[in-house]
Amino acid sequence: GQPEGRALGGWGLLEVAVASGVAAWATWATLLMPGFRRVPLRLQVPYVPSSPQQVANMLALLRGRSGKTVDLGSGDGRIVVEAYKQGLRPAVGYELNPWLRHLSNYRAWKAGCHGEVSFLKKDLWKVNLSDCYNVIVFLAPSVKPPLAAKLLAELPDEARVVAGRFPFPSWTPTSTHGQGLDQVWAYDMKEVRRAAQ
């Protein structure tokens, strides 16, 4: 005969659930949490990879522009690499998480632009953005109000901000592209300042 299969009892299910929870926590603590340690809780933004369509929509709103391009909280680097390929140079990503910076550098190497793009370990709240002309923001709604104040204070009038998935609640976009989760919004700082006055 064949050995009989044993069904998981209540304790077995509990053990599987606990083991899964521990594995999820270990992954978070090892891979994702290092970038958050120095950031206040209300300003933390979880890593959510942007889809190819979101990246294409963001870059469509920057087509034909020039000047320094930055991605605030650049995650796995896909937007920075694509911005460089589109001719937006220099292209820089600011990311605190070391694992995501390693992934970004690997992505740049694979795309043939390693050393041409930069992924810097800098807190987006502390970096000076006064020399940036194209700013990409794929961040949660909770950080948009304080970030709007920082961008207004630092960016030149010629700068354009492109926001993915969530718009800036108090700004009127110059243009928009896409629909649903893939929608993106562009804001020209000169127009934003004019509306604020």
Automatic annotation (TrEMBL):
Signal peptide: none
Superkingdom as given in the UniProt entry: Eukaryota
Ranges that cross the membrane: 12-33
GO molecular function, one term: protein-lysine N-methyltransferase activity
InterPro entries to which the protein is assigned, alphabetical: FAM173A/B, SAM-dependent_MTases_sf
Annotated keywords: Membrane, Methyltransferase, S-adenosyl-L-methionine, Transferase, Transmembrane, Transmembrane helix
Keyword Methyltransferase: yes
KW Lipid biosynthesis (keyword) present: no
CC terms in the record's Gene Ontology section: mitochondrion
One BP annotation, GO: methylation
UniProt similarity note: Belongs to the ANT/ATPSC lysine N-methyltransferase family.
Protein name: F173A methyltransferase
Designated gene of the protein: Fam173a
